[in-house]
Amino acid sequence: MNRKLVKTTLSNALGLALLGAASGPLWAQQAEQQNNDTQARPAPEQRTATELDTITVTGYRHSVQLSTDAKRDATGFTDSIFAEDIGKFPDTNIAESLSRIPGIQINRDVNGEGMKIAIRGLGENFTKTTINGNTVATASIGLDQQNQNRETDLTLFPTEFFNTLTVYKSPKASLPEGGAAGLVDMRNAHAFDNPGKHLTYSLQGTHNTVSGGVAPQGSLIGSWTNDAGTFGVLAGVSSVKGKMGVKGWEDGISDHWTTPALTAAQGGGSGTAVSNRWGIWPVVPNNAAMISAGLTPGQTIDKNWLLAHNPGLSIAQIDDALIPALGRPLYMSGDRDRDSFLGSAEWRPSDSVHVWVDTLYTKAHRAVNRLDLDLLGRNFGSPTGMIPLDMKVDGNGVVTDATFAGAQVFLQARPYTEDVDYWQVNPGATFWFGDEGNIKLDVNAGVSRSWLRRVMPTIMVNSPYFTGKYANHNGFPVITSDLDFNDPGLGWTWNDLRLQNEKRLTKTSNLRADLQFGDDRNNVRVGVSTDSNLRRIQAFDGQAAWKPYAQGQVTNADLAKYLISGPGGFIGVDYAAFFKATDFAKYSAAAPEVNAGNLSQSTGSFDETNKAAYAAFNMASDVWGRELRINAGVRYASTDQTISGPVTLGGMRQWQDLKSDYSEWLPSFSAAWDVADNVVLRMSGSKTMSRPNPGAMLPATTLSGSGVDTGRQGNPKLNPYISTNFDLGGEWYTGEEGFVGLTFFNKRVEGYTFEGTTRKTLAEMGIPYDSLSDGQKAQVGGNYDTLLVTVSQQVNADAALNVRGWETIWVQPLNFVFDGLGFMANYTKLNLSTAGRDAHALTGSLYGVSPKMWNTTAYWENDVAMLRLSYNWAQGSIQSAPSTSSILGAQEYGKDRGQLDLSASYTLKNLPTSPQVTLSVSNLQNKPMVRYFGYDNVGYSYYDPGRTITFGIRGSF
Fold first, then answer.
1. Helix (H, G, I), strand (E, B) or coil at 855
2. What is the pTM assigned to this prediction?
3. CA gyration radius, the chain
4. Which residues of 53-72 are buried (b: 16+ CB within 10 A; e: fewer)?
5. Helices assigned H by DSSP within 99-212
6. What angle do CA 313, 314, 319 make, to 5 degrees?
7. Pairing between strand 466-471 and 478-480?
């Protein structure tokens, strides 16, 4: 495979060659396309023996068997997961299910719930997600994630509604573009999956060891088809009244760790008093905390004083002593409710017509109380910080033990209230023409909307000063004192009040038509599609109005009445009483729109229209007596974008529109050869794309200072990410659901961005002359159309990311050991490197990828009982760009983590509806999620989501 395939000329040539090959006999359509090229299923006499769309035999082993059959029949590199029965998926979370596939890395929210996935070393935004082939775009963002890219929140979708998940690691021209790493298609249940009359119910109770209590959830799915087999409907509801709880620790997240900002006298002649550092009092103040520490008020704290009170340390060690900027234990708890509806209707008036419409609606309500108690290490260099006594440091300068005189903590109480709605409607039809039905037309449409409304006040109060014992022996420091931080009457005083809300809206619409000439084994396909995608983020900030009013209504003297003892060992807030006293609802509703939100997410929107056309052929023929299957084609895709966002120019805030467009040719080729009765060899070569990050494209236009020489702006001209891919592998099928597979893959990705500069005129930046100040107009003179401004913005790097790796999978029934016993295991190894002139700019920006991943499942099943243990492990990896803080060049990195889950069931066959008692335990070993910053004893975050136990019953009529 020529690695320069990414170049446009050669890509076009390959596409023309593939089309030329298609002009001969009609070729084959591989079996894998039945689930995803069209939602339609073939007319009854055309169905294949495997019937992968139809769930008639139930159980986990049958689910694995269907996955094995689908992989064997596929031409490209795909993996599928099938439901065990209507309304019963192997896992209770879609992301968890997908993580069992080789090469899939799961991204968990802080409560441990699987939220997003990444494929083969590329980030979540490189994966495109569809439902029945229609684009999915969600407005939800997770507990602490700003999510400005194209990720999909999979927690919105109940697993009960879906029968098949398919991951396409190699593309086809007929599939929607946009996923450089791959495409995940989720197929919902339909009435003709199981003809007749059926009603399936489930009722469960869930207990989390951190949040406590029992949270109910349940589902009801009914389907009906008429006796003639021409019409069917399915409807389902799912409701979850969930609870979440997290205990943990953070270093301050954005501020990380800090060192003292010594004055000149303290540093022996050279001071380091700069912002975001830990300033130390120049003179011992006269307060109870200092006196209780045995210090004499009025003493000068200079170099000699610090050395005398911290024996064994040099002044350089004191100056470089590392403590967290805002080290804080935290406790999160709350509700995670979700109500969903699925509806599907199908009409099959004849063998040549199939019409359907699917609709999906989800409403989620998330109310989370986040409490953290911050040790005030960072004080922006102000010489009013705690005084170190008897401090000890290790070889990296990390403080391991100390007494801090004049220490202070403050509470951050932050209740999230978030509501998310998502709905999607997908009508479609398939028509067969000709005497033998060898001309097929698929028409499919989709419309979706998603809204998010988040309200997030923050209430911050300070403790009195105290003397505390500080210890850091595992990377997550603790400080103890004689004060009771869980006492509302301790003497708390105001620190700050914030009110930061957010709204999000996503819209998608798509229409596609595919025309097939030939049968489902030999055909040529052509198709066209158009889709639009809009996403708008609006941040609101009501602090300026609410804070003075609230602090006027609730003074320091009144605070104790609105504080309560908290569940995390420190105080909380009586939100209902406080919000009523401060007229919170009024100020929240009136909060004005601002340019950036609480997590630095930028206000703005993108609106893009994508048009595509493709031609492809499928061939199945004998080579040396063995079947060879080929899928090849080329897709042309064009994109028109409008990027909008607020800018403030000349003191006026206004929305600015920036436009761009681009197009790409995307050829693909896959072949599978049955070289022996039970051995399949595969290869695939392709070019794929992901559209650029909208967050880097939003205008955010500013001119630096009072002049017009320099400025900043988002870059709407960013090119898409283009990946040239080559895959080689094969499988040996050992019988029943068993097989062994090995795949080698290589991706060369261009289009990564870094902070660079460009030269633009004011007109090109969209800055009107009238918006300039008088001084700026004088500098411009008569050169408005020609004066060039040096603009800092994200630019495409002249470099490429190489992702090379291999993955292996082994599925093996062990009936010869014990009837119904088996296991499945897979392993993925990744290697990332950069090449090109700007390779250095990319190297520090490649993070979030686990270089090694493996998971395994052991299962046993008979007619009435099932037991399954699954273990998913990922090697720790770099999670951030190099820091410019006190640990220069340090990066966040995650600790290796494995999670063990259990699932079991027992069917009471002699009772009506054959009820099945189910038990599942997530995070059986109670493993936390841990990150460090630079060193193993410099913690970044520690989240303990606890163990989640679900007990329930399900059955069918």
1. strand
2. 0.89
3. 30
4. bbbeebbbbbbbbbbbbbbb
5. none
6. 100
7. antiparallel
C-alpha separations of 184 from 80, 240, 543, 763 in Å = 10, 24, 41, 42
pLDDT at 46: 35
* Residues β-bridged to residue 223: 198, 234
Dist. CA 79–CA 69, nearest whole Å:
10
Task: For residues 810 and 732, give the distance between their C-alpha atoms in angstroms, rounded to a whole number.
Answer: 9
Closest CA to 405 of 328, 297, 274: 297
As a whole number of angstroms, the distance between CA 168 and CA 119 comes to 10
Q: How far apart are CA 446 and CA 441, in angstroms?
A: 17
The token duo for 699 is 């205008």
Cα distance between residue 521 and residue 547, in whole Å:
69
Q: Are 838 and 774 in contact (CB under 8 A)?
A: no
CB contact set of 399 (below 8 Å; sequence gap of 6+): 321, 322, 323, 388, 391, 392, 393, 470, 472, 477
Region of 517 (left: φ > 0; alpha: ψ -120 to 50; beta: rest) is beta
DSSP-assigned beta bridge partners for residue 952: 204, 918
Residue type, 644: S
CA distances 909 to 449, 589, 605, 915, Å, are 43, 55, 55, 7
Q: How far apart are CA 386 and CA 325, in angstroms?
A: 12
Count how many Cα atoms sit within 13 Å of the Cα of residue 469 in the half-sphere of its side chain: 5
Cα 236 to Cα 877: distance, rounded to the nearest angstrom: 40
Strand partners, 82: 164
Angstrom distance (rounded) from CA 409 to CA 451? 37
From residue 398, alpha-carbon distances to 247, 409, 932 in Å are 24, 20, 13
Tens of pLDDT, residues 42-74? 333 333 333 444 434 468 999 999 999 999 999
Q: Measure the CA–CA gap between 390 and 318, rounded to whole angstroms.
A: 11
Report strand pairing: 710-712 vs 788-796. parallel
Q: Which tens digits make up the pLDDT trace of 165-201?
A: 999 999 999 999 999 999 999 999 999 999 999 999 9
